[in-house]
């Protein structure tokens, strides 16, 4: 299992050291930095899995740094700040932050948020990798991504819409992992224009799940594969094998 490498960026030496030691005690490689130059040095010298970025860094702005980083790469970024209004949070999200945590914060809560962002990043990487695989098999079904064909256990060709196919791909990339509606919406949004947190988007996901169930489940009202995970979203509750034929 890869040990996460986390860059802790804060101009407060005491807080930076405390966060670095805390993360190291919880199984992470924590690397300290004080600003943009330190971030770029670490990024150029090795893998960074997540950046914990303070908003106010002396003469530098964490928001500006986040915007520049996001224009160049997709490394997950969690912003931390004493500024906690809705406007401050939205400014962070607007420049591409994956999460925003207000000071003072509980360290265990911070660790949980870091793990959640890392998990989402791993799922995205898994989806990108596994979409390149050619043939997926699950519960007797076969999905051939090169031919874009879905075959039932009885050998019948099942036609899916483009969005139903994209949903199936997201599920095949994350078998037995509960996915939130927001994560599913992000996987479906190929343009980047959708708001995955909106109520309308959540309802659209529910409708799409219902349509896919109607095509692949024996009893869509009592699904065996695409199950509702109460309080979370949905889970593809079957094993999936994938290979590049």
The CATH homology group name of the largest domain: Response regulator
Largest sheet at a glance?
5 strands, parallel
Helix/strand class: alpha/beta
Count of distinct strands = 15
- Name of the CATH architecture of the largest domain: 3-Layer(aba) Sandwich
Description:
The protein has 245 residues and is of the alpha/beta class. The chain has two domains: 5-125, Response regulator (Rossmann fold), CATH 3.40.50; 131-243, Winged helix-like DNA-binding domain superfamily/Winged helix DNA-binding domain (Arc Repressor Mutant, subunit A), CATH 1.10.10. The chain is built from eight helices and 15 strands. The chain has helices spanning 13-25, 36-45, 62-72, 86-94, 107-130, 162-173, 181-188, 199-216; strands at 5-9, 29-33, 50-54, 56-57, 60-61, 77-81, 99-102, 135-138, 141-144, 149-151, 157-158, 179-180, 226-229, 233-236, 241-243. A five-stranded parallel β-sheet has the order 2-1-3-6-7, sandwiched between helices. Strand 8 and strand 9 form a beta hairpin. The longest helix has 24 residues, at 107-130. The model is unreliable at 190-194 (pLDDT under 50).
């Amino acid at each position: 299992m890869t040990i996460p490498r986390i860059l802790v960026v804060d101009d407060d030496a005491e807080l930076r050291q405390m966060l670095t030691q805390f993360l190291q005690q919880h199984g992470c490689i924590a690397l300290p930095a004080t600003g943009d130059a330190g971030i770029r040095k670490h990024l150029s010298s090795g893998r960074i899995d997540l950046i914990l970025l303070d908003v106010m860094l002396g003469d530098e702005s964490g928001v500006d740094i986040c915007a520049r980083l996001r224009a160049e790469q997709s490394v997950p970024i969690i912003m931390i700040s004493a500024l906690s209004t809705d406007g401050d949070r939205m400014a962070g999200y607007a420049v591409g932050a994956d999460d925003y945590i207000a000071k003072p914060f509980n360290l265990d809560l911070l660790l949980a948020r870091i793990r959640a962002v890392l998990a989402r990043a791993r799922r995205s990487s898994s989806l990108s990798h596994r979409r390149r695989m050619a043939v997926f098999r699950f519960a007797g079904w076969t999905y051939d991504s090169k031919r874009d064909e879905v075959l039932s256990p009885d050998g019948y060709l099942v036609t899916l819409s483009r969005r139903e196919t994209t949903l199936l791909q997201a599920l095949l990339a994350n078998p037995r992992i509960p996915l939130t509606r927001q994560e599913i919406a992000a996987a479906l949004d190929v343009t980047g224009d959708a708001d995955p947190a909106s109520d309308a988007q959540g309802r659209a996901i529910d409708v799409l799940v219902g349509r896919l169930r109607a095509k692949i489940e024996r009893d869509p009202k009592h699904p065996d594969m695409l199950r509702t995970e109460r309080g979370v979203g949905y889970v593809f509750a079957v094993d999936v094998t994938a290979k590049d034929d």
